[in-house]
# Entry
Amino acid sequence: MSLKSLTKDWEPMSYGFLDASAKREIRRKTLKAIAVPGCQMPYASREVPMARGWGTGGLQVSCTLINPKTTVKVIDQGADDSVNAASIRRFLARVSGAPTTTDTLKADLIQSRHRIPEEVLREDQILVLQVPNPEPLRPVQPNMSIARQMHADADYGRMWLQLYEQIVRSGRVMQGASYPSLVHGRFVMTPSPIPRWDVPKMHMAKHLTILSAGREKRIHAVPPFTRVEPLVFDDVPYRVEEHGDLTCTRSGAKGYFMNEIPQPDGTSTYEVSDSELGVKTIRSSEGETIDIGQTWYQNGEMAQ
Amino acid sequence: MTVLDVRSLTKGFTMHHLGTQMGAFDDISFSLNAGEFLLLKGRNGAGKSTLLRTLYRSYLSQSGEVLFHSQHGVIDLARAADVDVTYLRRTEIGFVTQFLTARPRVSAEALVAEPLRLAGQTAEVALEQARHWLGAFGVKQELWAAYPTTFSGGEQQKVNLARTLILPQKLLLLDEPTASLDVAARAALVKRLAELKAQGTAMIGVFHHPGDVAELIDREIDLTPDAKPKEDREDVAI
Amino acid sequence: MMDAPKIVTTRPLLIARNVSKAYGDVQALSDVSATVYPGEVLGIVGESGSGKSTFLRSLNLEETPDTGSYTLDLPDVQGNLFDLDRYARRMLCATKIGIVYQNPHLGLLMKHSSSGNVAERLLVAGERRFSVLRDKARDALDASEFPLERMDAPPIELSGGMQQRVQLAKAIALEPALLLLDEPTTGLDVSVQALVLDTLKKLQQERKITMVIVSHDLGVIRTLSDRVMVMRRGKVVEQGLADQVFQDPQHAYTQQLVHAKL
# Structure
């Protein structure tokens, strides 16, 4: 028996970049967040080789959950190939040795900024959302101590007041992204800046969603099969973006959330925001046998 | 039927800034029946108005009792709880003063209708009645919707009378209501008082010119100190 | 007059007993007691620093006195309200007690719409229908004689008198059992003051709202109150019927106060 057999070889960093105690803290806080759906749990956000505000919260959760068998997918506003998504994907693969994919169906762990994929996620998949601003009450209560009391009291009248003001001023609810939603009938959370289109996907979803804010040092979660209800007035129904009738000019996919591409002549064309769905649609129309999963929206309508 | 039973009522004022006491009246007793009209006499400063205000509880008496036979039983107004006095003022005891305390920006007719509305009448009925009485006391129709704060003294007094006399009360206290009234209004007032008296309202009044109401007066009390008692009933001591 | 004979059988709505509060060495309130019957208006007068505002804030459960008790005779409201926890206080104040502050900044969200300010109170009570919020806010603003064409203007764009009306509309939107007014007309010019007073009087007569009003303006108190309580240095100096306190003040301080009125 030698000292060498009792110790590990020198490594430049821990597995998954974060040291074991950081990962343990995040696991514990994540479990807490799952136990109290929608409630923000504070954690000691560590330094990662990326600037705060660029997805460090999501990255830390991904680094914690990852193992060599986890297939990772990273998207940024629906796209797998944007600079940020590509960098984070490469970083995760490098620190963990985990395989990567762009196919939603093949991924075990999906880290995403501002979108939920259009294909329905399964029980065995985890969605990690990057959150810039975890506190839904911040616009109505700048004092975070009071905001926490308001959460404790379920004192959410001011959130509806915000909607009231929007309807009075603009004739409709103007909140486009980060639509405040009531989780499990108790806590109001921000679902991160996903469009209104994506919020119904969280309701009674089969997958686990973990939302993590690195700069603000908060984790909250939506466990599988949990109610997520956007805050609405009883007589003013919740409306998603009117993208149901739009067709992607590149892939021909119809009835999904679209990116608007302004044209020189003043009109707009649209292409599907979930880039991998667009790619799959093009390849299947070219005759390839492609497995496109069931989508949440069918013919532009949210499936019940 | 007795309405009011006053027993050895005494009132004086303490003037703290002078450190002195000033007596107003001493040991006054009388009783008053329904439909009876009692005239208070006496020279200036004899305490006529003070007595009325003490009965109304605007002034606190120093000793004695003011037993008022209300619909809810006998109550000593000198000691009754504030809330009861307020209630009785609203329902059973009226007070006509020489001055109108008009609220800013309330029309004459609304002011007159107020007691009826508080007594539970609908706004329309109350307003109709109010206009009737404003007319009866000779307030010009174009003034009905105007603010009484701008009226002349006489017109204000008419509004005041209409307001106080609109609702028949069990006990009515009159503090020189005829002052600053013209002849026609005075006649209307006497007519209304006679009407109320016939309905059983007991009245205590102070008048500069008692001749105006001579035919209504049943009894007189002279408050001038050392005046000879003029009480003609043996069961009542002054 | 605790043992005064009574014919009115209603129970008092509000009973505050022996309320005392000290800030360090300063005794802000000492043994202040008050009883208010349903539909009654109690006026509290006194100079600056007399403790009248502290007492009013205690009634709104914003202050916790050192000693004393406070009860409201309402269904589902029991015990000494000073003993309630923060959550229970908040719910009670949000639904049963309305308050109008001297400074509209304390009572209003200055940059939200006026109707939204009124709606907030309904939202706290759990109303979640936009149309109902809108209608009730409009009714409350109308009852406060607020010009409805400006109902969606933020208070910051309104005059002081209008801001007080928004506060009033907010306070009465849920038909509170008790309306507290802290110097509601101070800082308004005389003509606007008269309008606000008139609105208050109308509300009091039409809705029979029980009010406690604090002011150093004797005219305001005299116009609105059934009963008056005079405070000085944290103590109740005198209380009685409004006209009695003003016409026949018993205490030396009250006499001084009444005679000082222009």
